[in-house]
Amino acid sequence: MNALLIQGSNIAVVVFVVSSTLGVGLSLTVGQILTPLKNARLVALSLAANFVLAPLAAFALWRMLGLDEPFGIGLLLCGLAAGAPFLIKLAEFAKADLGFAVGLMVLLMVVTVGYVPVTLPLFLQGTAVNPLKIASSLIVLMLIPLGVGLALRSRGPVVAGRLRPAVGWVSNVSMVLVVVLTIAAHFRSVLSVFGTFAILAAVLYTVVCFGIGWLLRGSGKGTRGVLALGTAQRNAAAAFVVAGQNFDDPRVIVMITVVLIVEFLMLLPSARLLAKGR
Length: 278
Prior knowledge:
By secondary structure, this protein is an all-alpha fold. The protein has helices at 2-27, 30-34, 40-65, 69-80, 87-94, 98-123, 131-155, 157-185, 187-191, 198-216, 221-232, 236-246, 250-277. Its main location: membrane.
């Protein structure tokens, strides 16, 4: 039974990753992605927040709180992986700059594919990870579906419009299944989270990343909110892929799931507060 749950969880992760990135491609045009990225200063700040400060914050919390290594690795993977598709929905809730949210999300997602394989071995010296395997998995599961979606949106917008709601539904359902099946398959590992600082680490990490994005500011109130939300909402889909390919301890996956749940619980109301503030 447990083997079936683990297999179901792995399948749900793949469906979640592919449907999320495919849905992004079906929703956008290349122009919509590129236009908000013409502000070089804002792009530089976004990259620094997500690929320098966010990973360092994850690594620092791992060490400061004395997390068990699997929990620390899970937190670090979240720190390295940016560009969550859910950022667009958060930006809508926050009534922030949706154009910038679109461009930022795709930029971070694409950079993540090349960044994680190169950087992860630097943080985990002595731990066996396969950079080529990480890169190939992310390309197959994220960049190719994104490219397919963009091509369909460009050449057949009517077809893309019909597919988009179904793909979005699959993405939402598979995300729920990832959480449920991961908890069910690794119930003992989930219980091991309690009594540790793992949940506290996820909460603090979300707060710190939101603060990083907020303090780095942007060119306006709308972009400031997007940068804060975009830095705090990590790319769990990419983190799941890397964890599944390189780590056997189920607590790595469990920690990513904990971070995913905490982010949703914290960032949805935060987006609502940003909307009221505007």
